[in-house]
Target: Phosphate ABC transporter ATP-binding protein
Amino acid sequence: MENQRQDGTRLAPGNYKVSPMQETDQPADQLPADQTPEVSDAARHMGSFDPTKTLNTDANLRIDVRNTNFFYGAKQALYDVSLPIREKQVTALIGPSGCGKSTFLRTLNRMNDLIPGTRIEGEALFDGSNIYDKKTDVVLLRQRIGMVFQRPNPFPKSIFENVAYGLKVQGKSQKFIHERVETSLRGAALWDEVKDRLNSSALGLSGGQQQRLCIARALAVQPEVLLMDEPASALDPIATLKIEELITDLVKEYTIVIVTHNMQQASRVSHFTSFFLSGKLIESSPTVDLFSHPHQKETEDYISGRFG
Ligand SMILES: Nc1ncnc2c1ncn2[C@@H]1O[C@H](COP(=O)(O)OP(=O)(O)OP(=O)(O)O)[C@@H](O)[C@H]1O
Model:
């Protein structure tokens, strides 16, 4: 298929131009915010990441979701979803608003349990145990499968306290906590920006920094899987590129599942992409294949911009 959107831009990873990355001769102060030289620099750096180079279709299954149905009261939001989530790979969930991406993501660490009247069927095997099992220790589960939300949600505490929080709950020693806070902030590419103000309020950070702080907070308890629900949708283009760059770094050590509205973002950062529509998983493939050779008509319609 000629993989062109209606506006003419191509979607195949690595072969298309994403508007924030385009270069121009206009003076910087006359450029839209997403085309400033700073963005171009970050974009150039991102340009060196090519998920096709680290795609591993044989990677171990980290979570094996089988035949999941999910209900909000009488309303069914997921229909018979089966999806293998591979270790140390980024899996992107895409699809139009209301298709069930976030619901699916939240089933993976039982965040939907917090909503009264919800019900789930099927299984999601994580180290041989079913995540949905009533006996699952959800506190431990959420430690092992951490989550970052759409809007940065730091606690109204200091930068240090935000990252140390989970470790204090675990009763770790002061020395351990100090070391882990630094490692986590480094892991979230925030250390250099905050090392001299660890005791300042986290609420004084920019939106992008707050989101990286939330990522550091999730990393502090050493999760194995990171769930990200549109982690950059509330951020400006520079902060967005920093988060994308961070994802491409984190996946060396963690398994990542990311919900995104942005197909170009899925192409830039993910190894696998799953397309949802009306609560059903329509197609799931290596990202490069899904965008260049979709197997289903619905997928082709969606990625070519015919709906959604
Ligand atoms: N707490 C809730 N109670 C009842 N229905 C809900 C609830 N949360 C989501 N839904 C419904 O479930 C369906 C899937 O919603 P979900 O938020 O998972 O979709 P989404 O693909 O993530 O959408 P978006 O991209 O807009 O965030 C939608 O019809 C939505 O209205």
Summary: The pocket of adenosine-5'-triphosphate is lined by residues 72, 75, 77, 95, 97-103, 115 (CB under 6 Å). Residues 1-40 have pLDDT under 50 and may be disordered.
